[in-house]
Design goal:
This protein is mainly beta. The chain is built from 2 helices and 42 strands. A hairpin with a 4-residue loop joins strand 27 and strand 28.
């Protein structure tokens, strides 16, 4: 799990930052650039457990709660690894007592996750939004499910393989996790839980047909109908893909049966004086056609040719294999803080580093700096991928966000808005340092960046009027850079 000492709230109103020198956790209000809450974390912990004043706090994770739409974040969790302690602070009320979850030194705490609150459900306990969380012990030997409204562990899941898997389009009512058992040479289990708000109920556990490695990517389709297991790390030359439906087709031995089971071997192997392997990596993505039919794609590079396999979930089989020569394309190249249209010159060694998907849009990132855009077309029951364009950025691409049909590209130095007409990016923020952390919202992007002197945060507005001005003039910067970490009057808690 990604470790941050700076965390942006899910509501977009707050930024929390932990200072390890004075053990102060500051929560900054983004709206007025003032400190909303300030906590002396060491004093809070000493009020609960006995620790020597000289003992440092090894904070390894700050994590805001998951929230319902249009809600305000009120809780943040802090993992102190050397004390095997998770502290949950309730920021909604100044006098609210913190919650402590302590593990033995043998178990320890590696990380934790909030279980998102069930949508469209009234709060019945003492807390709003997230009221359950999962604590992973050291080496992920177990996952313990806690409720903030209960005083005991709800479940203990041994040897978890996956993290929390949320089923989309089901109002956060279902979540899952994959784990091994304590039995030797036993098949792993897929656990499905029903989220009732303050507690979760185990509704189904089923055996998988084969072992699952920690490198497996486990992801629901956008509709929450299909669950895909994908792994290209354990096979030297290929990949393994298993796809199940929502609750799985279970045989008489209580084993779940995959609807699709594909093991592909890369045949680009040469044997001359010795043995040489091509061994290209594979990337799996989900796409949804304009008719709401779902597809999974598997992409890989063979020399300088991109091969994309399209699997239809309606037909449960591969419907097309498309090959693209990715050399010699005309695209947008970043030069001197602006983009010009020219031929894209690719380096000699190429690899797929990331893929992104949004509806019919399919993005393949190569060598972290070349973003290829394809469109899924469905015409007369025929499926095809159409090349839309390619972008070459000057720094490594970190992520792509899709908000209100807007595409935002984030590199480790800049933020870009991409035109939906010609796939041309426009610089909307220079980070003035390395982008350390970011979060995208419907109307803004918040970035946290590091410089040699300090850590700053910026708000990038994405409203329609400013976006139009920006597209007309790429020199307009929309940053509202605010240094929120200078000493100010603090609200002590």
């Amino acid at each position: 799990m990604k470790v941050n000492h700076t965390a942006i709230s899910e509501c977009g109103n707050y930024i929390a930052k932990y200072n390890s020198q004075d053990h102060i956790l500051e929560v900054n209000n983004i709206l007025n650039s003032e400190i909303f809450r300030s906590y002396n974390l060491k004093s809070i912990i000493q009020s609960h457990i006995q620790i020597k004043p000289s003992v440092p706090l090894s904070v390894t994770q700050l994590q805001w709660e998951s929230i319902r739409p249009n809600s305000v974040s009120t809780k943040i969790g802090i993992v102190i690894t050397n004390l095997s302690l998770l502290v949950v602070l309730n920021l909604g009320e100044e006098a609210s007592q913190p919650i402590f979850i302590k593990q033995s030194q043998q178990d320890g705490i590696e990380s934790f996750e909030w279980i998102p609150p069930a949508l469209h459900e009234k709060d019945t306990g003492a807390y709003q939004n997230s009221r359950q969380l999962i604590v992973y012990t050291k080496l992920r030997l177990s996952a313990k499910v806690y409720s903030l409204d209960c005083t005991h562990v709800l479940f203990t899941i041994f040897k978890p393989i996956s993290s929390l898997i949320i089923c989309p389009e089901k109002n956060n009512k279902y979540w899952s996790i994959v784990a091994n058992t304590l039995k030797y040479n036993s098949l792993p289990r897929l656990y499905h839980f029903y989220n009732e708000g303050s507690v979760s109920v185990l509704i189904l556990q089923i055996k998988l047909p084969q072992s699952v490695t920690t490198s497996s990517e486990i992801e629901w389709s956008p509709s929450g109908t299909w669950l895909r297991f994908f792994d290209d790390k354990e096979l030297v030359l290929g990949y393994n893909m298993l796809i199940y439906n929502l609750f799985g087709a279970v045989n008489e031995n209580n084993n779940i049966e995959p609807l699709i089971d594909v093991e592909s071997i890369d045949d680009d192997v040469t044997n001359t004086d010795g043995i040489s392997f091509h061994g290209s990596s594979f990337e799996a993505s989900w796409l949804t056609s304009s008719l709401n039919e779902e597809f999974t794609t598997i992409a890989n590079l063979q020399n300088r040719e991109l091969e994309i396999q399209i699997v239809s979930m309606n037909l449960l089989r591969t419907v097309k294999i498309i090959k693209f020569d990715i050399t010699g394309n005309q695209g947008w190249v970043e030069t001197n803080n602006r983009f010009v249209s020219k031929k894209i010159d690719l380096p000699e060694n190429l690899e797929i580093t990331k893929t992104f998907h949004h509806g019919v849009n399919y993005y393949i990132c190569i060598n972290n700096r070349y973003l290829f855009h394809y469109i899924l077309e469905s015409i007369d029951d025929s499926i095809n991928l159409k090349f839309k364009g390619v972008i070459q950025t000057s720094s490594a691409i970190v992520d792509c966000c899709f908000k209100n049909d807007q595409q935002i590209i984030i590199t480790n130095e800049r933020v870009y808005h991409v035109s939906s007409e010609d796939f041309k990016p426009n610089i909307i923020s220079n980070a003035y340092g390395t982008i350390k952390y970011f979060k995208c919202f419907d109307d803004k992007v918040i970035i946290v960046n590091d410089t040699n002197q300090r850590t700053n945060w910026s708000i990038i507005n994405l409203n329609i009027s400013k976006k139009r001005r920006l597209i007309e003039n790429t020199s307009i910067l929309m940053d509202e850079v605010t240094d929120t970490f200078e000493p100010r009057k603090r609200s002590k808690t």
